[in-house]
Each structure stands twice: as structure tokens, then as C-alpha cells.
Automatic annotation (TrEMBL):
The protein's name: Putative spermidine/putrescine transport system substrate-binding protein
Pfam family name, one: SBP_bac_8
Entry similarity comment: Belongs to the bacterial solute-binding protein 1 family.
Lineage: Bacteria, Pseudomonadati, Pseudomonadota, Alphaproteobacteria, Hyphomicrobiales
Localization of this protein: Periplasm
Entry-linked InterPro entries: SBP (IPR006059), TAT_signal (IPR006311)
Main location class: periplasm
GO CC terms: outer membrane-bounded periplasmic space
Signal sequence residues: none
GO BP terms, alphabetized: thiamine transport
Natural source organism: Bosea psychrotolerans
Amino acid sequence: MTIDSKLSTTRRHVLAGALGAASFAIGGQALAQTKEVIVATTGGLMERSLQEHFYKRFEEQTGIKVRSVPIELPDQWARARAGQRSGNIPFDVVTATPPDLIQHADILEPIDCAGLPGIVAHALPNACFPRGIIRTAGGMALTWSKKAFPKGGPQSWADFFDTAKFPGPRSLPDTGDREWWVPLAALLADGVAPDKAFPLDLDRAYKKLDALKPQIAAWWKSGDNAMQIMRGGDAVMMMVYSSRSVPLAKSGEFDFTWNQAIRDVGNWAVLKGSPNVQNGIKFLDFFVQDGKEHVAFSEKVSFDSNNREAPSLVPPEERRFRPSWPDNWSKLVIADYDWIAANRNALRERWVTWLTK
């Protein structure tokens, strides 16, 4: 080997070593990227269904291990914020409400929607955002007992608040985004048009809620808890996730309406500077693919999910239960998420003060 060839070989080794060191130094991510992606989501049925229809296939097709962390949203964001401060970020992919994508934008990785082939080819229209993508879509729906109302149940939030026409104990959420879900329903019940509801007139909403509060028999804390309340007869109607309304209705004992259901969207996002940012982005791009898996997943969780081919694969008899079916989607009430994000602390303080007084 000549001196020149030795020097050339040495240069290549040095350059390769430098590139490897640089790759490892960028957020300390490159080595970890080949190993796993850490996904934070709610536990129970949602986690099991994601595992069956997405996590396992992602592992098989990419060789990237999915480490699932079951956690509720308030704890997830508290840990994410603490991790940003300490430099020890606990998750790659997180679950986010629409206001979360705005409120926590500073700690979320930007999403290049146009540069992700799976998103471009398979995601629902307008379902990828600068800081996340839609995961699941449903609504906070009015659900009632057919035994309590054999001649027909309530069809609007005005009916929910009408205790003379529809007597009996009610149930409302004290979890999730209840600080704006419930006041919004109160304003709709008081005659405010959906497109005029924001900014929320909280004084008017809580005046309406004051009159109903004695009829609230239970404040549910989870979807499973809500179903137990209805099945146990502790309430004759409630506001609840459509993912719980659907199985209740399919049992034959309960029914629900999409009319004035408050659109409830769950999103995926990737934490900025997380251990496996690129693996997180890969997972988001993978998630939106394969319509048949989305249909099967949606049947289990009773939420629609982010795939444009899935709606055409839904049997006609199932369409009544699908929020994204056009006749149902058009009835959902869409909130002003920018206003909610800007006023979230005040909304929560007002809710807690009212609930505990």
C-alpha cells in the first residue's frame, strides 16, 4: 500500500469516526434510534388495541421495539415538562388534546406533514398539524337509559337540562377537558348557537349549571367508571365519550345521539429532544397506514382513527356508530382550541371552585 493510499484510508476512517461521533452527539439519539420508541397513552382497552393493531406490526416491519407507558394526560404532561427541565425526557410519542398541541407547542417536535409518505398517501384530510397528527376522533355524546325513557330519550343538551320533561339523576365528567366540555354544553342548552359559543360566557354557563347541579348524582372519572354508573342505574343520562356510548347502545339497554356531541379528538405528538425522536416520527407515519387495521381497531375502541381508506370499508349497519361518517360528523360541535389554550388555567380554576363549593 502506498503512502497516499494509507493517508486516504486514514482520512476515511477519521471522517467516518467523526460522522459517527457527530450523529451520536445530536441529542444523543442516533444509537437509541435503532432500539425502541417510547409511547405514552391511556391504559386499558386503548393500550391493548394499539398493541394488537399497530405496535406489533410496527415492531415486525421496522425492527423498532415499542415500549408502551400507560398514563393519564395530566401526569403525562407533568412528567414531560419536568423532563424538559432536567434533560431526562421520559417519552418519545405522547397523547395530546387539540389545546395541548397549542399549549405545549414549545416542547413538541415539528412535523413535516408534506414530507412523510404515509401521511401524504393515507392520512385523513387536514389531519396532520405543525406539532402532531390526529390519532382518534369521537365526541362527548349525550347518552341515556332506554328503560328510563322507553318512548324516546333526550336529543339535545337542552333536553339534558330539562329535568321536568326528562326526570332522573344525571352524570357528568370530572376528568379530561371537563372545564370546557360542561360549560359549553350548558351554553348550548341555554340556546347559544354552536358557532357563537366562543369565547365562552362562563357566568351564563355556570348560572345554568347551578340549576342542574342538585340533579348530578355522579361525577365520573374514567370511561369505565361512566359505564358502571349507567349500567348500575345511578344515572339515567350522562355526557360521555362516544367510545363508551357506542358499546352501551349496542347492548340494547341504552342509546345516544350525535346531535351537539362535542368533538373529542386525540392526537399523537413527539416530544422535542426525546431519546428517539426519529423513531417517534416513523411511528406517526406508520400509524396512518393500512385501512383494514384501522377498521378493526375502531371497532374495538369505538373511536374512528386517522386513515382515509377506512370509512369506505365500514359496513352500512355500523355507520350510525362512526363519528366520521358524514351524517354524524356534521352534527359535532367544534371548539375554539386557541381560546381554550389561552384560558385553560382560568377555566380549570373556575371549574374546581364551582365543583367544590
